[in-house]
Request: fold
Amino acid sequence: MKLKKTGLGTSAVHAGEVRPGIGGAVSMPIFQSSTFENDGDAGYHDVRYIRLNNTPNHDVLHAKLAVLEGAEAALVAGSGMAAISTTLMTFLSSGDHVMHQHALYGGTHSFIQHDLKDFGIDHGDVDPTRQETWEAIRTDRTRVFYVETLSNPLMTVPDLQAVVDFCRQHGIVSVIDNTFASPVNFLPIPFGFDLVLHSCTKYMNGHTDIVAGSIAGSAEKIAAIKHKLDHLGGTLDPHACFLLHRGMKTLPLRMRHQNKSALEMARFLAEQERVIRVNHPGLPGSPDHERAKTYLHGTGGMLSFEVEGGAAAADRMFSRLQLPIVAPSLGGVETLVTRPVTTSHAGLSAAELERANISEGLVRVSVGIEDTEDLIADFRRALS
Reply:
């Protein structure tokens, strides 16, 4: 279903939908078929087959994602890491170089710094807030510059305009992981980025019941990524497509509450005696506050903080919390807490963790859709 220009909430519900509904169904059915009839005229990448991510469930998702991202085309994958790894391998080959910000999500960090080396691909990490240092890292073989809108887990906001300008100047593909911000808070493609990635496991789905990823950008670049994805097999199955499709319809409602609630939580934690520091760009004292005000419509549902007493104190606090669940991942309707050194960044060495400024006692909080006053009361009890 093609719409005239509509707001994000309307697009989340209606964009890409099949109208009239199949068999009169208001909700998109699950096409639980691995293969479809073929007239023999299609090329390999156009054959209807689950592994090629082109069932009716995939088509609706791709159309809706493209509208939400303000992009020509979009593609879903079997996980966030499938989206990330396939995208990087599409635009990098042996002898090439990728620039990236330091303190990335642990899986991305490990893939870039360790796995890509097996393919003869080098890397250079940069401070994403200091453009004057980037030229020294760039090489004649730099093909990709990779950043996160809000970094995991320290909530750093890069100088996003500088990244776009730098990449255009040098003919580099700009890639941004927008998972923490979501399209509600930032739209990378209209801003000037070439490609935007999401772990749709998180906010895009929002219900902690699937693993999925997405890529959006120009039709030409998405076609190249799909060609690679078809061979690597990072497929999203139709049932997961159905759940992601359902979850995306409530994204604006969930994200707007989580924006507000996480900021209130950050303000509360910043006032607590036993909290050493709070990482959230919505706080005026944050080094990222001005960039967040400049680039973002909201500062997201994530925050991290250090509790006095390190890992032992953090674990004691976890044992006293009643509402948050101690678990990895993020972006669901329920509040989750974790120590990144044991989950998202467990694959990093002690030296890598120290360089990324991720301590044993750092606590990451994914704020859900519970009443904010109940969460604050629970954290107050746990910290007392």
Q: What stands out?
A: The chain is about 35% helix and 15% strand. Residues 121 and 137 are 15 Å apart (CA to CA).
